[in-house]
Specification:
The structure is a homodimer. By secondary structure, chain A is α+β, with helices and mostly antiparallel strands. Chain A has 7 helices and 9 strands; from the N terminus they run ββββαββαααβααββα. Chain A binds a DNA duplex through helix 6.
DNA sequence: CGGTTTCTTGATTGGGATCAATAGGAGTGG
DNA sequence: CCACTCCTATTGATCCCAATCAAGAAACCG
C-alpha cells in the first residue's frame, strides 16, 4: 500500500489476502485471491496502490508491467477488451460484497462466503466439496464484517445442521443446496 | 438492469440513485451519482447492466457509445488513460463503501455520508455547507446498510449536538470538523 | 382539502459484539 | 519424545446497538 503503481499481478497459483488500512488504524480484509485473479487494478487511478496483499501460502504471481500491457493492448484489440472486462468484473465483484455487507445477516454471509470459495476452488481444478481454509477466523470475520467468535459459532451451527463438516481449517461442504437456502432466505 | 450494454453515461447535471436487485427481491442502493460521475462501467464485463439507475431530479446525461469511445481512445492515448482512471476510481470508491459497511457504526456511517456529499457538492460548484437531499431516509439507509428510523434518529442526534441543521431534506453542515471526529472515532 | 408518502420519536426486542475461560494445534528447544 | 509457548479456535455469559413494532406529525400532491 502506498507504493507507486507500475504493474498488475496475475495469480498463477496460491492464495492471497488483501487488506486496506484506514485513517485510525482500523483495517479490513477486502479480498481473498487465488489462481486467475488479477491484483493491483485499484492502483491505476491514483498511481499508487491502496491496499496490501499478502500470500497465505507458497504462491506464484506473474507481474505485468502496466506500461507494456498498454502498448501491447494498443496493438491487440482483444487484449484491450479483456483488460476492460477484468476491471469491470472487479467492480461487479465488489458490488457483490457491498450487497453482502449491507443486507445479509451473519449466517447468510458465511453461507455465501463458503459457496463462493467452493465455486472458485472448483474453477481452479480443486475439489469444490472439501478444502483447506488458508485464512484465520479473524480474517474471515474482517472480510465479512463480523467478529471471529461469530464466524466460529456459525461454523459450529452449520456443522450441527449437517450443512458442512468443520475441523479447524479443513472444511467439507456436505449440503450445498442447504447453504444456498440459508443464503437466499427471504428475510423481509 | 439486464439491458444490453452499449453506452456509458456521463452525468452533466442532476442527481441519480443506482440500485441492484438481488435473488430474492431484496434490493439495495449502491450509489448516488452527480455531475461528473460516469455511470454504466459495471456493464462492460458481462455485456449487460447489473443495476438500475433513476434520476431523483431533472437531470442531464451524456450517452457515450462504448464502441465509439474505444475507437477514439485508440487514437488518443490520453483519453484511454482517463478511461482507465475512471474505472479504477470506481473500484476505489466501492472499496470505500465496503469499508464503511464492514467496520463503521451507524453514526460513523452517516457522518461519512454527509461529509462525502458535502465534498462532492463543493466539487460541482454548489455550497458544501448547505444542500438539499434528493433521496429519502429509506434510500440513505439502504445505501448505508441501516433502517430509515436509524437514519432519522441519528440526524436528530447530530442536530442536538450542533453538528448539523436538519429540516426534512434540507441540511446544513454546522461543524464539519465535528463530523470528521465522529467519523474517525477510534472504536477499538 | 383529503389522501398519501415521508419523517420523527418512543418502547421493546434481538442478533451479534464483547468479555472471559478453556481447549487444541503448531512450532521450538531440551 | 515431551514440555513449553504462542497462536488460533471454540463455547458460554452478558451487554448494547440498531432493528422492529407502533403511533403521530409533517410535508407533499392531485
Amino acid at each position: 500500500m502506498g507504493d507507486r503503481f507500475t504493474s498488475l499481478y496475475a495469480v498463477r497459483s496460491g492464495f492471497f489476502k488483501s487488506s486496506g488500512l484506514r485513517d485510525n488504524g482500523r483495517d479490513q480484509v477486502t479480498r481473498f485471491s487465488m489462481t486467475g485473479d488479477v491484483l493491483g487494478l485499484d492502483g491505476i487511478g491514483q498511481e499508487h496502490h491502496i491496499c496490501n496483499t499478502v500470500a497465505l501460502e507458497d504462491s506464484d504471481v506473474c507481474a505485468i508491467p502496466f506500461a507494456g500491457l498498454q502498448e501491447l493492448a494498443h496493438e491487440i484489440p482483444s487484449l484491450q477488451r479483456e483488460f476492460h472486462r477484468a476491471m469491470s468484473r472487479e467492480i461487479v465483484r465488489e458490488r457483490g460484497v457491498m450487497f453482502l455487507l449491507g443486507s445479509m445477516n451473519a449466517e447468510e454471509r458465511l453461507a455465501m462466503f463458503l459457496l463462493n470459495l467452493s465455486r472458485r476452488f472448483a474453477a481452479s481444478g480443486y475439489s469444490s466439496s472439501e478444502f483447506h481454509l488458508r485464512m484465520t477466523r479473524e480474517e474471515i470475520g474482517s472480510y465479512l464484517g463480523q467478529k471471529l467468535e461469530t464466524v466460529s459459532r456459525i461454523f459450529s451451527r452449520f456443522q450441527q445442521e449437517g450443512l458442512i463438516g468443520v475441523q479447524q481449517k479443513y472444511i467439507r461442504i456436505l449440503d450445498s443446496a442447504g447453504l444456498e437456502r440459508v443464503m437466499a432466505r427471504d428475510s423481509d
